[in-house]
Specification:
Blueprint: E1 8-11, H1 16-29, E2 37-43, H2 50-61, E3 66-71, H3 108-122, E4 127-129, H4 145-158, H5 160-163, E5 169-171, H6 179-189, H7 211-223, H8 236-242
Parallel strand pairs: 1-2, 1-4, 2-3, 4-5
Length: 245
């Protein structure tokens, strides 16, 4: 009997990119008779834990079959301002992929994809969706196409599924989109932006000045859409565009 559904694993942080990704994966899965989206979220000791609650809400919004929150502690050895509270998160930084900020978490996407791969193989999932982007980003080395390609090669060698010819595919539909492009895609998919969170600092209001806030606001400004989140402060480029939104 022909299978009438496919299982897909989606990595969801609760931020702009991964939430758009979850909506997209859910929509693509609906071309099958059953929607089989399995979501993974990671609580690794990051200071911006508000995103974890957002991930739970987005997971319900897209009708995930299951939402697993995997907890482990990367604060044990630090190496990032997101996992070490005595390190200051950069604000008002000039956005460039030439210099990598201290918000980079060592090998984070390698760790995330390893968990996702184990999960995908266990539930017989065919695809893993990850919201990496190499256009409007902070220059993180594990968000680039060469890294994804190498991990895809590893899947063929490191899993029973891969050795038997059932290679689990890594899907990166946001890889070559600008932040504005992601916002426009999200609007088309009906993403509830008010349920998402991007700020590295957490808090009741987003700071508006960390890399993640700046990139998010840049996307909304260039897309001509007002971000529904509340911010403590806006970067200059968004203040100029805010009157037009």
């Amino acid at each position: 009997m022909k299978q009438t559904f496919k299982n897909v694993v989606v990595l969801l942080s609760g931020g702009l990119d991964s939430s758009t990704l979850a909506y997209l994966a859910a929509k693509e899965s609906k071309s099958y008779l059953q929607n089989r989206v399995f979501i993974l979220t990671f609580d690794y000791g990051q200071r911006h834990k508000k995103e974890l609650e957002c991930a739970k809400k987005i997971s319900r919004e897209v009708g995930a079959v299951e939402h697993q929150v995997v907890k482990f502690d990367l604060t044990l050895w630090g190496g990032s301002s997101l996992t070490e509270k005595d390190k200051k998160v950069p604000q008002k930084r000039k956005l460039t992929d030439k210099s990598i900020p201290n918000t980079y978490v060592p090998a984070r996407n390698t760790i995330f994809l390893s968990f996702a791969l184990a999960y995908a193989e266990a539930i017989n999932a065919e695809e893993i969706y990850i919201g990496v982007n190499s256009v409007d980003y902070s220059g993180y080395v594990d968000c680039r196409r060469p890294f994804i390609n190498k991990f895809q090669e590893l899947i063929k060698l490191a899993t029973v599924a891969g050795v038997k010819g059932r290679v689990i595919k890594i899907k990166t539909p946001l890889m070559n989109l600008s932040k504005a492009g992601i916002v426009k895609l999200g609007k088309k998919l009906g993403v509830n932006w008010s349920l998402t969170w991007s700020c590295y600092l957490g808090g009741k209001k987003a700071c508006g000045l960390c890399d993640s806030c700046q990139l998010r606001l840049k996307g909304f400004a260039l897309a001509g859409i007002k971000d529904p989140l509340k911010y403590k402060e806006f970067p200059p480029f968004y203040k100029i565009n805010l009157k037009k939104l």
